[in-house]
Amino acid sequence: MDLTSVRELVDARCALPWQPGDAWLAGGTALFAEPQPGVTRLRDLAVMEWPPWEIQDDHLVIAATCTVAQLLALTQDPDAPWPRARALITACCRAFSSSFKVWNTATVGGNLCLALPAGPMISMAVALDGMCRLLAPDQRERLVPAADFVTGAGRTLLLPGEVLRSVTLPAAALARHTTVHRMSLRPHGRSAALVTGTYAPDTGRLEVVVTAATRRPLTAHFVRPPSPPVLRARLRELLEPGLIVDDVHGHPAWRRQVTQQLAEAARHDLMGE
Ligand SMILES: Cc1cc2nc3c(=O)[nH]c(=O)nc-3n(C[C@H](O)[C@H](O)[C@H](O)COP(=O)(O)OP(=O)(O)OC[C@H]3O[C@@H](n4cnc5c(N)ncnc54)[C@H](O)[C@@H]3O)c2cc1C
Asked: Pocket residues for ligand 1 (CB within 6 Å)?
């Protein structure tokens, strides 16, 4: 796709003030996929050379510019820590309705900032208690929970000129038991519903996160594992009609029904039933 309105491509590190029409360019798999009439200048993040990920004792930092392929490579490394979290991350990477060609270019940050309901990096970041690190043009930083970062379909908490620098996943979340269930109308189609479940046996805390079926991620927290009726009732409360996605990838009534089934499957997995 030719972006005919774009007049300039600049290094993301350049000191030029942010102006209307500016956009961060990461992998470009979304930016170059459809017309962007308002975009006149691209600020290329590829030059940043941020390490794709950094493993510390108590957390994993994933750079916004980490590609899906790089993240997937980490999860496939048998010597890497946190096997349960790696299984969840693998499933989220594979939930993209695209091939390895797109995975080599598409970035984790681009996925979060695009904020599609079916953004699997959003599912991953929310399930694992991710914290988003945002940098303003004046270099001021703020930290925002991934659970709050996406506020609606295509909407985030980013302010003009702010860039998503990284997502940090704490070790406590990375150590939890995990499961992922996904439904799509077609085998390799866009997710119509994606449900992650995590469970900490030491505390009894269980969380179910719903994405793809809803305009923004929804989390059901339980201080102890819920029974099937308790889980169903909590999801009924969360899945308000206005929040369910209505598009070609699935009818809202079907998405609501499927989400309930996937959530019960996640609960069942985590309880080892
Ligand atoms: C065949 C195909 C299938 C796809 N399937 C899916 C799918 O299943 N689910 C899905 O969610 N998406 C899908 N996409 C869309 C897209 O590929 C992904 O969302 C991808 O992760 C976007 O990342 P990117 O690095 O290419 O972002 P870009 O296209 O470079 O940018 C996307 C948006 O985010 C902004 N942005 C990027 N990085 C940052 C940053 N660090 N800080 C602030 N703003 C930033 C850009 O300005 C732009 O508005 C698909 C695309 C294709 C071509």
From this structure: 23-31, 33, 45, 64, 96-98, 102, 105-107, 109-111, 113-114, 116, 118-119, 158, 163-164, 190
* Range 178-270 has CATH code 3.30.390.50: yes
In one letter, which amino acid is 90? Answer: T
Where residue 110 falls (left for φ over 0; alpha for ψ -120 to 50; beta otherwise) is alpha
CA of residue 59 to ligand 1 center, whole Å: 25
User: What are the tens digits of pLDDT across the range 219-255?
Assistant: 999 999 999 999 999 999 999 999 999 999 999 999 9
Its CATH architecture, for the domain 50-172, is 2-Layer Sandwich (3.30)
pLDDT bin (cut points 50, 70, 90) of residue 174 is very high
Strand pairing category for 155-156 and 150-152: antiparallel
